[in-house]
Amino acid sequence: MNKWSIIISLFVLFSSCKKHVENKLIGTWHYYYLSAADTGITQLWTFNNSSELIRVIHRQDSLFYDTATWKVDKKIAEPSLLEISGLDGYFDGTYQILKLNKKFLYLQRTSLFNGSSNGAFLRLEFAKESL
User: How confident is the model at residue 76 (pLDDT cuts 50, 70, 90)?
Assistant: First the structure.
């Protein structure tokens, strides 16, 4: 194999890994609150093909929704990262994808949207909604 064949093969492999992560992410995920104070609230996050994220929050007496954008960043030999922007100041940022399969999605924020890691820690846990 010559040098160009190896480079093209690596590029194809990298692109397919990123696409694989994106395809697993697409769909609706039920967000699970990690504190007891938030019981009675249901939050659904839907990741669309168009890199649009739709969040719906159901409370006992109200319904709220907003939208954002998402992007997967996958580098060779590094963990997959998920960038969320435009949702709100609290959830925007870059998340490391700790677990992603057909049932569960675990995210851990590594940096805020402005790139700062100070105070960035946030863990999010989701279960895939069945249709």
Answer: confident
